[in-house]
Amino acid sequence: MTHQHTTATDAAPANPAPWRPSRTVAVILAGGTGTRLGLGIPKQLLKIAGKPIIEHTLAVFESAPEIDEIIVLMAAGHVTEARRIVEKAGFRKVTTVIEGGDTRNATTRIALDAIGDEDCNILFHDAVRPLVSHRIVRECVNALWTYSAVDVAIPSADTIIQVDGDDCITDIPVRSSLRRGQTPQAFRSGTIREAYRRAEGDPNFAATDDCGVVLRYLPGTPIKVIDGSDENIKVTHPVDVHLADKLFQLAAARVPRLADERSYREELTGRTMVVFGGSYGIGHDLTELARRHGAQVFPFSRSTTGTHVERPADVEAALRTAFEATGRIDHVVVTAGILEKGNLAEMDEETIDRVLQVNFVGPVTAARLALPYLQQTKGQLLLYTSSSYTRGRARYALYSATKAALVNLTQALADEWAEFGVRVNCVNPERTATPMRTRAFGAEPEHTLLSAEAVAQASLDVLISELTGQVIDVRRDPGEAPQVVPAQTARSAAAMSAG
């Protein structure tokens, strides 16, 4: 937007005294109604990656060490829902959830009244920018030691044109001097209060952001701009929902590993993990890795324990065995699966039923029966898909279809089980060196395959994270040493195909 400068000469007086804020307050502006998304609820309550958008946003500021307090300005009629989200998530920094105003500027005034007259740092942030980074929050707060107003922006990748009332170009500004504004916008409290005080006397006052108010009514005040990020998008239109969900998925793929083995042991000691399909490939390597770090792991499979993941009685017996031995179940992992190649029209009914039962009915059965146990520990269910879920592949249509179904199951269950505090995620490894793959595709170039050990490590990192509703891509590091595809007998490969 273009801001018009006033001709006032009484800019904010210089204050040579060091700035000593009492605290830093994040104001989350959640007044949107979701009209442009065509929703019946405010867009900030829409769920992405297993949680309401506003919960993702609040989590960033809750975990930012620079933030002392959070105030939420919620859309009219939805304050109770926002308070419920805050209470359920246990956000301790949120001190106030109140109704916002009819406009952005009216909402800012309400926030300033709620904060009071004490000198403090204030960050205003759109609730529907859930991918704001800790780096941006930190740099905003740090900049307030030098500047009294701070904005966040990114360069414009597109040429910006200015048009008249007939939609004809009147000007093409130089792109290098243009930026696309984001939030948060940060201020010393005295600066933003003074800007709004002066704005009250202007009958033509109109602005869509708070830096615009400072620019117009305190023209002598420098507004520092720090770098935003392309990921810090504002969920406004339907396509933004899909983009945000994909960005969360990409962020999930970068789940950080813990620093050392001692950290993993601290996280996993005392936890109980049940692995269906735990005798070969990824399931076997995850079992060994988790045990090494102190977890009590119970692997089950058709070939070693006679456990058929698609049979409710078998699954319940396995879960009961683990629970009776340890008194808890923290993680349930389903790696069992089979890959049968061939044209669908040429498959016999027995093969079709086996693929559907093991690859889809099995995870559904495990999920349904595991929930009571996972509720007690607020644990996690972990499923596995493949890259074929994004596009069905000829000659293994059922496999692709069941893997796509698991992605939808993951996202749906993460939504359903959020109220229980149970997380659900799905790992999507690229082509991995497992007995099942060897059976289906034969020998392949070693350097083209991801190791089962690498997928197991990524799976463990997901299990000890707070992620939910995510499809986590696991890709081979280009610098990774070639992985040796283990030689398997036909019998062991066939056993692995069924978990």
TrEMBL record:
UniProt keyword annotations, A-Z: Isoprene biosynthesis, Nucleotidyltransferase, Transferase
Job of this protein: Catalyzes the formation of 4-diphosphocytidyl-2-C-methyl-D-erythritol from CTP and 2-C-methyl-D-erythritol 4-phosphate (MEP).
Alphabetical list of SUPFAM superfamilies matching this protein: NAD(P)-binding Rossmann-fold domains, Nucleotide-diphospho-sugar transferases
Name listed for the protein in its UniProt record: 2-C-methyl-D-erythritol 4-phosphate cytidylyltransferase
Single annotated GO MF: nucleotidyltransferase activity
Pfam families registered for this protein in UniProt: adh_short, IspD
HAMAP family recorded: IspD
Record site feature (Transition state stabilizer), residues: 36, 43
Pathway: Isoprenoid biosynthesis; isopentenyl diphosphate biosynthesis via DXP pathway; isopentenyl diphosphate from 1-deoxy-D-xylulose 5-phosphate: step 2/6
Domain of life: Bacteria
Site, as annotated: Positions MEP for the nucleophilic attack: 175, 234
Taxonomic lineage from the root: Bacteria, Bacillati, Actinomycetota, Actinomycetes, Micromonosporales
